[in-house]
Amino acid sequence: MYNGLAEAVLRGETDGSKHGKRVILPSSFVGGARYMIQNYQDAMSICRWFGYPNLFITFTCNPKWPEIIRFVESKGLKSEHRPDIVCRIFKVKLDNMIRDLKTKKKFGAVKAVVYTVEFQKRGLPHAHILLFLSNEDKQPHPRRIDEIISAELPDPVTDPLYYDNVKEFMMHGPCGVIRKSSPCMDGVPLDNRYVVPHNRFLLMKYRGHINVEWCNQSQSIKYLFKYINKGYDRVTTSFFQSGAEGAEPNLDEVSLYYDCRYISSCEAAWRILGFEIQYKDPSVERLSFHLPNEQHVIFEESEDLDDVLNRKTIHESKFLAWMQANKKYPEGRDLTYGEYPTKFVWKTDHWQPRQQRFSIGRLFYVAPGSGDLYYLRCLLNIVKGATSFEDIRFVNGVQYDSFRDACFALGLLDDDKEYVDGIVEASFWASAHSLRLLFVSLLTSESISRPDVVWQSCWKYLSDDVLYNQRKLSNHSALMLNDDQIQSFALAEVEKLLANVGKSLRNFSCMPYPNSDFSKRTFGICIQVH
């Protein structure tokens, strides 16, 4: 940060190699942790703008496409021998499918598209696609859904080609008792129970496994970017190197990224060819912001800090340029910082009026425990046309000394509201376990004045994975738990996290406490009943 460098120079420390973080993977590095998280939050911004996605489509590469077979057979090869050809053909068909979905409006008017490309263990690429339809098409008549999605075997007499495609590409199973040995299905009669939901037009044109599902919830975006929680495939457990005893560990993000990574031949070819792994339309403009004199500064390790501080651009940032643009363009003064990219475009070092297309603005996420930076973010969601930091703190004719005071004046921080809102916002992209860690952090830092009120407001988000985990642990897929039982299990998880830092729920007045004996007893009853 700028103020950190300025203080270092005042102390006479001008060696750039001794300051800042040296080894990171920026969000521009495709596939890195920051890249995945930022794209995930971009997708959630699209979700906030257009509402829940409506269609979830999974498009899997078919190594038997005639374009692939024609090329490899002419060389005396198989498709697995030329992953570059497989990737090129899949990318061509994927791009063509996206154009079809947008222009031909088979499912209605498409307002936004998000997809991510993944790779199976055997190497074949597949794309998970989310479609956001117009308001007129978001709630179609059931008859219209039946026209879009089919889960039936067609008549082999009246439509033999369609029947053959469904039989070859869209049958899932039979499995279990019916098919104890895989992969053969010969001799087993097929019926509608085994048909994967699909669209006739897409199946007939692209001749591959194309699963089409109707959806109306943000959970599909969490699935789309599941790698930010579970990580990429690895071939074994990796180790990390810590610093000397008592010293801060030297975390090399590059090493953490590639240590023991498993990369298939198709994924390697895809990356070499420079094809995107994430796709979004419309685009999302990421909006950074900072406190006064705390803008980030990037410099070479060998640079002298005096030279860094004397740069002409040292006091420039996207956020400060927004304030300058508000002085120059009156038409932008009716927009918040997050709304600015809808009418203006960022050009390297300045904002200018947008001439074409459309973009969504997204302020970077800041945790509630970040202090003034969090309060600044709260204000930026409301304040319009600010030309200075003082303007942001100016509320109802009063100039406040801090961003927190300005938030109080606007009624944004009553009754721990900022922490409840922070947990609710984080629930759009974070796992329940991460939310519990956040709640424990708020408890241990004494950031919230009434933890029981915050718990009652947010416990459903903090316990989102309880039922799934208990069903998995009990190997009982039909297990049902009531709200009290779910809260008890979630509180038990919070108690475990608090124990790691030497604290307990009993240290916080009015907070409920899990009754472990009761939890076990009711858990057993549920299993017997269901």
* Number of domain units: 4
Taking strands numbered 1, 2, ... along the chain, how are they ordered across the largest sheet?
4-1-3-2-5
Sheet bearing the most strands, described? Answer: 5 strands, antiparallel
Average predicted confidence as pLDDT = 82
Taking the alpha carbons of the first and last residues, their distance comes to 58 Å
Q: Helix fraction?
A: 40-55%
Instruction: Let me know the number of strands.
Output: 11
Uncertain spans: 236-248, 518-530
Shape: globular
How many whole angstroms does the radius of gyration measure? Answer: 27 Å
Label the structural class. alpha+beta
Strand content: 5-15%
Number of helices: 22
Could you explain how this protein is built, in words?
This protein has 530 residues and is an alpha+beta fold. It has four domains: 34-150 and 197-272, no CATH class; 160-195, no CATH class; 283-418, no CATH class; 437-529, no CATH class. The protein is built from 22 helices and eleven strands. It has a five-stranded antiparallel beta sheet with strand order 4-1-3-2-5, with helices on both faces. A hairpin with a 5-residue loop joins β2 and β3. The radius of gyration is 27 Å and the shape is globular.
Helices and strands in order:
Layout: H1 2-10, H2 33-50, E1 55-60, H3 66-74, H4 83-103, E2 110-119, E3 125-133, H5 142-148, H6 160-169, H7 200-206, E4 210-214, H8 219-224, H9 227-230, H10 253-258, H11 265-272, E5 278-281, E6 283-287, H12 305-309, H13 318-328, E7 344-347, E8 350-353, E9 359-363, H14 372-380, H15 389-392, E10 394-395, E11 398-399, H16 403-409, H17 417-426, H18 432-444, H19 451-462, H20 466-474, H21 483-499, H22 516-529
Parallel strand pairs: 6-9
Antiparallel strand pairs: 1-3, 1-4, 2-3, 2-5, 7-8, 10-11
Helix pairs in contact: 4-11, 14-16, 17-19, 18-21, 21-22
